[in-house]
Design brief:
The protein is α+β, with helices and mostly antiparallel strands. The chain is built from 2 helices and 3 strands, in the order αβββα. The longest helix is centred in the last third of the chain and has 21 residues, at 83-103.
Length: 104
């Protein structure tokens, strides 16, 4: 659900202070996943916390208007399957090995 237009985008004040102090090449750690990406943030790398660790997110022009949390997933996909899934993974590994042999 989008934020009301009369309120405007949410931008964390502490994060803006960190951006003003930081250099372009250092990682800025933040827990503000709900902070909207603004044009001032382009070019910086943010360490966005996902609940366990900080995921580095390099902000580009296409990301403006989105939230920081969109680029740092909080859950890890676990493959389902069993016997069929193992067979598929074995085939994929075999094809990969053959491709590597051909490239040498």
């Amino acid at each position: 659900m989008a934020r009301s237009l009369k309120k405007g985008p949410y931008i964390d004040e502490k994060l803006l202070k960190k951006i003003k102090k930081a250099k372009k090449d250092e990682v800025i750690k933040t827990w503000a996943r709900d902070c909207t990406i603004t044009p001032e943030m382009v070019g910086f790398t943010f360490g966005v916390h996902n609940g366990k660790e900080f995921i580095p997110v390099k902000v580009t022009e296409e990301m403006v208007g989105h939230r920081l949390g969109e680029f740092a997933p909080t859950t890890k996909f676990v493959r389902h399957g069993g016997k069929m899934q193992r067979e598929l993974e074995a085939k994929m590994a075999k094809k990969e090995a053959e491709r590597l042999k051909q490239s040498k």
